[in-house]
Each structure stands twice: as C-alpha cells, then as structure tokens.
Please model this.
Amino acid sequence: MAPQDLQITLERFSSGDRRVLARVITLVENRSRDVPRIMRALYPKCGRARVLGITGPPGAGKSTLTDKLIARLRARGRRVGVVAVDPSSPFSGGAILGDRVRMQEHFLDDGVFIRSLSTRGRHGGLARATREVVHLLDAFGFDDVLVETVGVGQTELDIMRVAQTTMVVLVPEAGDTIQVMKAGLLEIGDVFLVNKADREGARRLKNELEAMVQLRPDARWQAPVLLTQATDGTGVDDLLAAIDAHQAARTRRAAHEDEEARLQEWYEILRDELSLRLERAVAGEALRPMAERLRRGDIDPYSAALDTLADPAALERLLGERRDGGEE
Amino acid sequence: MAPQDLQITLERFSSGDRRVLARVITLVENRSRDVPRIMRALYPKCGRARVLGITGPPGAGKSTLTDKLIARLRARGRRVGVVAVDPSSPFSGGAILGDRVRMQEHFLDDGVFIRSLSTRGRHGGLARATREVVHLLDAFGFDDVLVETVGVGQTELDIMRVAQTTMVVLVPEAGDTIQVMKAGLLEIGDVFLVNKADREGARRLKNELEAMVQLRPDARWQAPVLLTQATDGTGVDDLLAAIDAHQAARTRRAAHEDEEARLQEWYEILRDELSLRLERAVAGEALRPMAERLRRGDIDPYSAALDTLADPAALERLLGERRDGGEE
Model:
C-alpha cells in the first residue's frame, strides 16, 4: 500500500467507516505487509475498550451466552465488537458460516460488529491476529470487545491472553472438572460459568469449581462461579456484575500489567514479523541456491540452517525488508 | 557443551547407551543450543526407521492400541521407539505420569523405548521437538518409531506431519464423523481404525468413513477403514498388514516427498532457531534500552518492533549468535 493510500485508509477508519474496518481486518488475516504500519498509526487510539474473553469446551453454550451479553451491553448503550476465533477447524471454514448466521441478528445495529477468524496463520499467528483485531475494534471506538474461542487447546489459551477479564463456560457433565484442570482453564478464568444450570450436577460442578478456585495462588481476585442458563438469560445480570467487579479490581493494579503486556506484544510482533519475512524469503529468490542443494540431497537441513544462520550477510538477505509497499 | 563433550556424547549415543539417548532428548525438550549441532552430526544415520503416527480424539483407545502394536512389532523382532505427545495439557504434567506408568511394562525390554513430550515449547516448538526426537530414535537404531498424540487440534496436525503412515483412531459415537472432518483428521489418515468395534454404530461409522475416504482426491492410496478392539487385540494383525501395505505404496513415491520434507524441515529449523535467538535476546542485554522505553510508555510496541527490524545492525545484534557453548 502506497503511503497516500495508507493515509486515506486511516482517515476513513477514524471517521467510522465500517467497510474500512472490515477491510483492515482482512489485511490482518492475510498477514499483509501493511499491518505493522497501520497498527502503529492506530495504537494511540487503543486502550479504552474493555476486552472480555469467553472460552470453554465445544457445546457449552458460549455463542448463546455471547449473544445475550451483547444484548445486555447494548441495553446499557455500550458499543460491542466481537471476535470469534475457531482454531480447531483448519479445513471446514465453519467459523465463517457461523459469522454470517450470527451477523444477521445484528445486521441493522451499528453498535455491534461481529467477525470470525479462522486458522490461516499457524504457529501463534492466530493469537497475534486476534490481538490485532482487538486493537482495531478498540481503536474504532467499541466500548466492549468480546473475544470468543472454541475449544480447549494451547492455541485457545494463547488467544485468551489478550482478554482483561476471561469467562470460562462449562456445563455439568461427568469429568468436566478434570478437563478444566487438564486444559489449563482453571488458571485463566476470572469468572466461571456453569451454564445449562438446570441440568443435573450443576450445583456439584459449581461446588467443585469453587473449591478449586480457592486453591489458586492469586489472592487479589477470588473468581466467582455463577450458574447461568444462556437460552433464557438466567444469570446474565450476575455475569455483568461480576465483569464490572473484576474490571474494577483490575484497574487498581493495571499499570504493571500494561507494562508487561507492552513488552510481550513487542516480542511477539518481532517474532511473527521475522517468521513472516523468512516465509517470504523461502518462497523467493534469496534462498534458491540452498534450496537446490537440499533438493539434490547435497546437504542436510540442519547443516543448511546452521550455515545460513552463521553468515551475517545471509541473515540480512533473509530478513532485511528491502521492498516497501506494492504488494497487498 | 564444549566440542569434546559433544564428541563424547555422540560416541556414547552411537554405541547404544540409552541414558545418553534420554539425555539428548531432554536437550531437545529444553531447546538447548547444542541441538542443531547434535542433529547435524546424527542426520546421516537417519532415514532407516518407519515413522508411524497414531492420533484421534481423547478416549478412543490410542494408548492401548499403541501397546498392542508394540507387542506385535516386538514379536517380529523389531525394535520400537515411542514418542507420546500431549499438547493439550500445559499445566498438568499428565504426559509424564502416563510415561512412567507405561514404561513399567516394557522396563526390562531393551527393544522398547517410550518417551513423553509435554507442552514446553509453544508456537510450533512441539512439532519440531517431536520430529527431532523421531530423528534421534531413528538414528539410535529403532526399526519403528511410533508417534502418538492426544487431541485433535492444529498442533496435533502439525505434529502428525512427521509420520510416514498415519493411523486415525475413532470410536463409534454420535457426531464422530463430523468431528473427524472438522478436525482435519480425514485429510491426514492413511489408515482409519474404528476402535471399540463391539459398540453400537461401529459398522455405520466404518461405512461413513469409507464413503468419505473415497471422496479424497489422492488416487494413489485408498485408505482402509478397519474395525479393531484394542483391549483384546482384535484387528491388530489387519492393522499391521495395512501399515506394511501403505509403507510399500509409499516407497514407490518417496523420493519427491523426501525432497519436500527436507525443504520444509530446513525452513522450520530456521524459523524456530530465529525465534529462539530472539527469545534469548529479549531476555538478555541487547534489547534492554528498548525494553526500558517500552516500560515507560515512551514508545508503542509496533514502533519499537519496526525500528528494530529496520536497522541491520540491530538485527545482527538480535540474531547473530556470538557465544558458542558454555550453557546447557
């Protein structure tokens, strides 16, 4: 993107053009070269939104709960952006379908923006893309940004680190508690929800979770365990109150956390940007002679990598970004 | 590790010292600086073992099946190495417990070596660590290397790429087929197993899988769908025959695949090595002034990253490896 196009994009973004917001999110998804410069320009506008995460195993009712949350937050007059991330379905494109279905409901409401992200960028790329979309929604002016993930793997845990307040949604089923512990959800939850609370075992699960929460080392925030029924909205007011309480508690100790978050973000941008440049170099001309030697079996992959890394000029050829702009 | 220590390690490894094998695997787990040099030295010994992957949702009976496979392969006189990878449990350390329990059975059998890997290296690090452990077991002289993963996420798919023959284990349960498709397991399976075949729905799942397999574009190998019962060993002989058949079919087209695998491996080593050097740089002195500016809020993370990446000298400070040895 040429500097003047970048300028126009940023101006339209700042004037509240939703199509430009959508287009910039697509640039993030496609890992465009323009993203770091866009993010740098918008960064001063970030930091106002509350970032709320919703996670838990598939089928726990997260989407329904998110929809109920959106409605209540809208009733308070708050503008709500949603990022739904599905790292578990690299082939199905299911996230995009879900996106469209859900968009229908809020189609006419300018105060709501919903976007799905699917598994395009591997190796931590999805977590970074999520954070960038959160920044964009924040800079665009949404008061609350909801991040919803499906599944319970390492990728989801990485993604949830962007949230200030993380809700973990569970349903009363055998073995659930152990799954929570195994998947690391116990550590990341700021609010626990036992959804489908009319089912047998809901009260027992709540008790088990409360016992586990009390064993956590963090004495500054005692994570509440709420009974909810997303389908009819039971417990959603309690949830909103719990979010407000956690946000208030968080504000009192936010400065240090923000410092750490900035450092972590810087490191992750560097890491992903290096990885991206390497990808382009491997696909391009700079590394072709070595690739040919590897194809012929004249050198093994470890020797090839060590040789490249030992040579400063090769490193610079590999990672220096000479072209700027032109490509989307 | 000093050059002479490296030499001694390599000699003991080559003489078949299992404690040295275990120690080198620990170096891989800890992402030691010595790993690329060790791998380079051992690479010429690799490429003899069959690499067999076993994956599928939790509770499908993968571990029991692996144990039965080990027994049959041992009965054929083959030496068997096993890597069990559990990317889903970053906190529990469950993999290591499973390791110990299973090691007991084969404790006195020198022809079997079982090792678990847990989620230490994030961001693709686990897939690379798995491949390195596979190389080590291969170079050590195991005839078959089994790679077992738990779960169905993107990390597991990445890990399974190391396998030459991938077994996907399923159980007859409602919705299973859709899960398979969603999780990308359909694409990676070379042999499908419907385990717990005495359960209702086993035959139907087999039929559904066979129909789906026929829709796959690869005409060179028609993945069989086998009914097994891991607990009593039913179907394990058929499984061995299917593995042999797939390996034979694979050999006929292996040269090109090996080329691609070498290129991919080279790229991944470069990527992970850069990421590792960056991690060390961030933790060390080279980037401290920038880190201080970030802490104070004098610069935002994107500007900090772009400034660092735009400066060749900074890149070299960041990624050049000056020290060699000393640290484990």
User: Anything to note?
Assistant: The two ends of chain B are 6 Å apart (CA to CA). Chain B has three domains: 1-45, 47-252, 259-319.
